[in-house]
Amino acid sequence: MVNKQIYYRDILALDDTQLEQFVLDWVNEKTKKTYSSAARFSGAGDLGRDVVGFLTADKHEGAWHNYQCKQYTKSLGTGLVISEIGKILYYAFLTNFTAPTAYYFVAPRGLNRNVEKLIFNPSQFKEKLISEWDNHCSKNIISGSQITLDSQLKAFIEAYNFSNIGRFNLDDILSDDAIAPVLFKWFKSDPGAAPKGVVPTQIVDNELPYINQLVDAYSEREGKVFSTHEELSTYSSHQRHLSIQRERFYDAAAFKRFYRDNTDNSVIESFEEDIYHGILDTHDSDHKDALTRLTKVMEQAAVIAPSGPLATYAKTQVKQGICHHFANEDKVKWRK
C-alpha cells in the first residue's frame, strides 16, 4: 500500500490558488459517490464559498457542501474561522443560496486549539459567533460596510446546525477514499500493485460474450457444436483451459478497477490501447482455427511491454485477460 503521508510536503507547498484547484479535483472525485457536481468560486464575488460539492441537481437551491481552503503558514485562528462562518451564513440569510448542509475548513496546517474545541462543541461555536459578531464579522463581510446582527439575522444563525461545521487537515485529506487519483494527477504518485481478481464459482451474465466465443472455438476444434459451457463436462482439457481464461479475465477486471480508482481513466485507456495494437497483427493473421488464433494472441499479449506507469504492474495474466475484455466488447473475434 502506498504511504500517502509522503505527500505532506507537496500539499503544504501549494499556494492558495493551487490548494483550491487541488481541492476541486478532490471534490470532483467525490462526485462518483457523494456529489451531483462540483464548482469553484473565487474572487470578490465568492460570497464565502471556495469549492462546493452539490448533492443534487438543484445546486444552491438544494443541499450542498462548502470546502473553505486556507493555505496559511500556521494553524487557523479563532477570529478568521468565526468571520468565515458569519460571512456564508449572512449571504445564506440574504437568500443568495441555501445554508450549506456541511461546511469544511480545508487547512493543511490545521486549526488552533480554540477552533478545534469550537468545532467539536457546536453549541459553544454558535454562542461564540453570536457573542463576538461585532468583533469578527460585522466589518469583515463587506468592505467598508458594517453588518448589524439584528433579530432576524440572529434568528437565522441560531436556527443553523453548527454540527455541520468540520475540518480537513493533512491527515484527514490523505486518509480520504477519493484522494488517490488526485495525488496521481498532481504529484504522479505510485498507485502500487493491483489485487488479484476473484473468480465467481458460477459464470455470470457479464462474462457470456467472451465465454461464448471460447465455447465456439472449442466447438470448431472438436467438430461438434457445444451450445453452452456446461456441455464441456467430458472434455477436461477444454474445461481447464476455460478455467484459466476466467482467472485471466478477472485478474484484468481487478487491475482495471484498481487503477481507475487510483489514477485516472486515461492511464487504463492508454494501457488497453498498447495491448490492443500489440496483439492486432497476430489476431488478424491466418490461423488453423479459432483456438490457435486465441493461443497465439495470448502468447503475443504475454510479451507486450506497455508504456506508462502501469508497466511495472502489468503481469502476464493481466495482459492476457485484457484480451478477453476485448472479446467481451466485440473488439476481437477468435473465429473468423
Characteristics of this structure?
336 residues; alpha/beta; Trna Endonuclease, Chain: A, domain 1; 5-stranded mixed beta sheet; 14 helices; 50% helix
Write a structural description:
The chain is of the alpha/beta class and 336 residues long. It folds into 2 domains: 184 residues, Trna Endonuclease, Chain: A, domain 1 (3-Layer(aba) Sandwich); 124 residues, no CATH class. It has 14 helices and 5 strands. The protein has a 5-stranded mixed β-sheet. Helix 3 links the parallel strand 3 and strand 4. Helix 10 packs across helix 14, helix 12 crosses helix 13 and helix 13 packs across helix 14. It is elongated. The model has no long low-confidence stretch (mean pLDDT 95).
Low-confidence stretches: none
Instruction: Output the CATH class name of the largest domain.
Output: Alpha Beta
Number of domains: 2
| Average pLDDT rating | 95
